[in-house]
UniProtKB/TrEMBL annotation:
An individual GO BP term: menaquinone biosynthetic process
Family annotation (Pfam families): HEPPP_synt_1
Name this protein carries in UniProt: Heptaprenyl diphosphate synthase
InterPro entries linked to this entry: HEPPP_synth_su1 (IPR009920)
Length: 287
């Protein structure tokens, strides 16, 4: 099995018509999962568990990401909306239960403990993030750091297991790829009016905008056209592309420091969607 096959291995646990037909699911955490599999497969100690560990961490991440899609309020009473909300809760719980079950079957007690600890840390970080957002105490840099930390916690459970490789290589690669992933997600987000307010661009504009523009941003009833005009005025998309290009260059410099040509090639293959987005911005939706 190669790193691209982990998503296929997860399908028996995620592809259910009841879920797919009545609610949306988050994207599979491909970048981080492929990266984890690649590093575990290079470790003589964990090569036999590389597929299992990559699978279980992806299911645990899917569980957390699915719960994030549950609306905060239950104001919409339509039958379809209520069913969608309920299925997100149940699907998130189910994905999480599969991760526990698979590790228990394999007798991986210590890894179960580490993953459970990481999940607690993810929830703590999310609570801090939401609290700062509600109190308007968030900056764009804060948002980026929280986003990366939240996405990497489960995968950092393997830092000790991979510490025998090049010093700090796992943590550095995980952080670098995840920053690129967040930036790519934020570029897509600004094209969608419905979740613009929960992203990097919103907090960036809130920092650099005029007093009147900040007032507009804080008003939830502001016309989407005005918000889009602010994005254009401050060249937010161009700024995000520049950030992605800079981050990928930093990541590339670190990748080239590995001695194994095969590992370098595999790491570049994982990061190819980032390079494709930088090279052809118009093809962003295809990445």
């Amino acid at each position: 099995m190669n790193s691209n096959s982990i998503a296929e291995a997860a399908k028996p646990y995620t592809d259910y018509d009841m879920i797919r037909n009545h609610t949306e699911l988050p994207d599979f955490p491909n970048f981080r999962t492929q990266l984890l599999y690649t590093f575990l497969h290079k470790s003589s100690t964990f090569i036999e568990q590389s597929e299992l560990f990559a699978l279980v961490v992806s299911l645990a991440q899917l569980g957390l990401d699915t719960h994030d899609l549950v609306s905060v309020t239950n104001e919409r009473k339509e039958k379809a909306e209520a069913r969608s909300r309920q299925l997100k809760v149940l699907a998130g719980d189910y994905f999480s239960s599969r991760f526990y079950h698979l590790l228990a079957q394999a007798g991986q007690v210590e890894m179960t403990r580490q993953m459970a600890t990481a999940i607690c840390e993810v929830n703590r970080l999310k609570m801090n993030l939401y609290t700062r957002m509600r109190q308007w105490k968030m900056t764009a840099d804060d948002y980026m750091q929280y986003s990366v930390s939240i996405k990497t916690q489960l995968y950092l459970s393997f830092s000790r297991a991979l510490e025998g490789m090049k010093p700090n290589s796992w943590d550095d690669m995980l952080n670098g790829y995840t920053r690129c992933e967040v930036l790519l997600d934020e570029l897509r987000r600004i094209e969608r009016d419905r979740d613009f307010r929960s992203g990097w661009a919103f907090w960036h504009l809130l920092q650099i905008g005029t007093k009147e523009e900040r007032r507009q941003l804080q008003n939830e009833d502001t016309d989407p056209g005005k918000l889009r005009a602010l994005l254009h005025k401050y060249n937010v998309k161009a700024t995000l592309f520049q950030m992605l290009e800079s981050q990928f260059k930093t990541l590339s410099d670190k990748i080239r420091q590995f001695d194994s040509e095969k590992l370098v090639a595999e790491l570049y293959q994982i990061g190819e969607p980032f390079l494709r987005a930088i090279s052809a911005p118009r093809a962003l939706e295809e990445v």
